[in-house]
Amino acid sequence: MRLTALLDNITAQGGSGPWTPHQPLSTPLGSSDAAEFDRLLAGLLPCRTNDPELWFAEQSTQVEQAKALCQSCPLVAGCLAGALERQEPWGVWGGEVFVDGAVVARKRGRGRPSKAEVLARQAEEAAAREAAESVSASSAA
Fold this sequence. Notes:
Acts as a transcriptional regulator. Probably redox-responsive. The apo- but not holo-form probably binds DNA. By secondary structure, this protein is mainly alpha-helical. It has 2 domains: 41-109, no CATH class; 111-140. The protein is built from 6 helices and 3 strands. It has a 3-stranded antiparallel β-sheet.
């Protein structure tokens, strides 16, 4: 449907009136022009030029590679906004990792976490507790 026809339909439903362009609309793209545009656009989007499985990988190294490729994409903000709106269940969208419909900092691989990861998480939690205790002790004094 042409834009002018769409706007005329909106007018019939209470819009602001018929739209008259200041410049005539160019002729619609031919099939070869549309194919050329799609090819050029696909060359700019890393998710179209790389293996699509990379954006839904199980291994955290591949997920991080997909996130890094997203940083060069011109549509990264729109991709992320669309994924949040659709509540994507998983994958890399807009340079962020989705797991169960929520954005997470990094994806953990399958299976048990390594001892190093568990120890690092425990150290972070202990440091956060100590910081909270020092803040509450200084505010009580």
